[in-house]
Every structure is written in structure tokens, then in C-alpha cells.
Amino acid sequence: MMPDVFNSDMFSLVSLTDAINKLPYKPSRLGEMGLFQTQGVATTTIVIEELHGVLSLLPTVRRGGPATVNRPSKRSARSFLIPHIPLEDAVLADDVLNVRQFGSETQADTVAKVVNDKLQAMRQSHELTLEYHRIGAVKGIVLDADGATAIYNLFTEFGLTQTTQDFAFTVGSTVIRTAILAVIRAIETALGAANYDHIHCLAGKSWIDAFIDHDDVRAAYERYQDGVNLRNDPRKGFEFAGVTFEEYRGSIGAVKFVADTEAHFFPVGVPGLFKTYNAPADFVETAGTLGQPLYVKQERMDFDRGIRLHTQQNPLCMCTRPQVLVKGTMS
Fold first, then answer.
1. Which band of pLDDT confidence, cut at 50, 70 and 90, is reported for residue 279?
2. pTM higher than 0.85, yes or no?
């Protein structure tokens, strides 16, 4: 009779959750940039306040405790339900039996390897989804997996209008540097006194092709290409007129993270500008605790035919100053 390994500490909520959060991170561009600060919250809803174009969290207080003092200035606030993204898979009895026939490991170790393989695949799906939400926060509109349904739009939520700069690549009189300077000025105006390291641009393939093929840019890009082998890290992008440009190639099937004909400009190095708030899982054990990036739980299937694995993430990716997000178009 097969021992009940799934009731061991190895397969508890805490152990499984620790395991999936320790699995190797699959690199993604925004993840590589370290753009987002991550913070766990103890609730599934947070209140976002807008004051002078800056969004901030209102602190929670104990029931009956003193309330936050209202400041006499124009502000708006609304609650945001943190997205809940579950995923399920299963480890069947046949999966374990077939693997056990080929190895000399103990049964618990062998089952753990099967579970680990499942968790690796599930984590990759969660990471890709998180990257999709991050790029949405960079654009100011976080979309659902269908690429059309908005989970939230920061501009409409707070009555803001996004700055759009048209790069008329096909017009002979267009001066690209002037258009870029207009973007920089718009971002610096929105930032006010806040300091930043540099301005970055993530662009679709058609936009970036037209950009580097423009007469104003071509010579500078060719010099950049000639010196690629002399630089330590060429992945940081191509700098022109004080902005770092790079093509963003992420996609899920037909859903592209950045449209081919669009570019998105944002400042880098502003503390607290981009945040990811993680809510706790909808488990009894996690109620009232600070949220983790990922959770895993398992339950026995009917007639002991296997174990069902449940993973979930509850992230809210935000830009706390959405007016600094400038959209570039092409004509």
C-alpha cells in the first residue's frame, strides 16, 4: 500500500507556498529592470488617493481607532479590488507510479519532483501574467488576459488625460529630437520636484523600426551598433536625445504586450513610482496576513486518484503618478 506522503509537512500550505516562491524566476524585461517595488497587504481591497496628480495609499486603522486626518486640498479616492488570479493542475496517481518505476529515490522525494515540475510550469504562467499586468501599469491601463477588457484604467478612474506625442516619421520636416524633448518636458512637468535617473521607452516593432530608420536617428543608431561589442551590457537599449529606446517583444499568443505602432515613455529611478501590492490568498490560514507573490495549496481528489494543486496570485500593479506616462504614436 502506498504511504500517504501528501499528508507530510512537505506538502503543507506553508511548504508548498515557500517552494513556489523559491523556484527560479524566469527573466522578463520589467522584472529585469527592477522597476516595481513589491509590498504585501493584508486586505483584498485598497483605497488609492489622488492628490495633485499623485496616487497614494490611505493607511488602514483598527476599528474604533483614530481616522486619517483629512487635508484641506482637492483630492479624490476610490477603492480598488486587487485582482485574483487562480490556476489549477493535478498530480495523478499514475504520474507518481510511472515515475517511481525508473528511480531509486524514496517515494516522498519522487513525488516531490513530480509536484515541483508542475509548480515550475504553473509559476511560468503566473510570471507571464504578472509581466502583462506590469506593462499595463506602465501604459496606465491594465488589461485582462483577452487583451481587450480593462481591469482598471488609471486615467479614467481619476479623471486624468494621458499625454500623447505623435512621431510623424513619414513627414519630411519632422525633427525627432524636438518630439522627444516634448516628451521629456511633459514627464518632468508631471514629476514636479521629484528626481529621476533617466527616461525609458518600450516600443512596438513597427514604431522602433520607423524610429531607427529616420534620417535624424539612423546615423546615431549605426554608431551605437558599431560600439555594441565594446559595451559591457548591450541590453540596456539604444540612447538618443536623453531617452533609452528598446523594442518590447513580449506577447501571449496573439495578445501583444505593446502594440506594434505604439511606444510608451516613463521615468526610471523615482522612488515608489511603480508598485505591486500583493493581497493574501482566499484561504482560512492566510486571512489577515500580508500577501505573498504566489500561493500553493493541494487537496485530495475523489477516490484517492491524485492530488489537485491550486496556485494563485493576487497582484495589483500600479503607477502612483499616471500623468508621467506618455504614449508615443506614429503617422
1. very high
2. no
